[in-house]
Amino acid sequence: MKFCSECAAPVELKIPADDTRERFVCSACGVIHYQNPKMVVGSIPVWEQNGELKLLLCKRAIEPRHGYWTLPAGFMENNETSAQAAQRETIEEAGANIDLHELFAIINVPHVHQVHLFYRATLLDLNYAAGTESLDVQLFSENEIPWDDIAFPTVSHTLRFFFSDIKKVKQGGNFSVHEDDILKPMRGNT
């Protein structure tokens, strides 16, 4: 950030009074510009028929990770709830009609200033189609998932949590809410 969005004067990075972190502060009007993580919100759309469970994945038509598979998800917009964002992103990317369930995974990705939230969902029908941000949309069983072509670690982690929970549910257990952190390795560490 170089200029104040309030008055267009230059900003400087400093620790404001009564704060503990560096912030961009306007040199003219004194406005403190807080920068906070972005929320990425999506769903885990499931179709079950004759005891076979499949998940809906989207092949990305945009960067980053063009051509890789992901769950339908994207940035939360102002004036919407996280559940509304999950529903909207599922419609936009996969054209899918879903019944949204509870929050399933919260994954912090601090090195890119993001928090990813995924909700469990049930497909209401098989009327889905790739949106403008997707090249393709397909249903996959666990053994069909293109694990080497998953776009993001948050999606891989969420899928692994999901299939682990499915095994528990089949044995009479319940779904859990999963929390995870994906930390960027420090240089020189392996």
Q: Can you tell me the CATH superfamily of the largest domain? A: Nucleoside Triphosphate Pyrophosphohydrolase
**Strand runs, count:** 11
Rg over alpha carbons: 20 Å
Number of domains: 2
State the end-to-end CA separation: 33 Å
Structural class: alpha+beta
* Main sheet specs: 8 strands, mixed
Figure out the total of helices: 2
Indicate the overall shape: elongated
Second rung of CATH, namely the architecture of the largest domain: Alpha-Beta Complex
The amount of beta strand, in percent, is 35-45%
Order of helices and strands: EEEEEEEHEEEHE
The average pLDDT is: 95
CATH fold name of the largest domain: Nucleoside Triphosphate Pyrophosphohydrolase
Low-confidence stretches: none
In which range does the helix fraction lie? 10-25%
What is the CATH class name of the largest domain? Answer: Alpha Beta
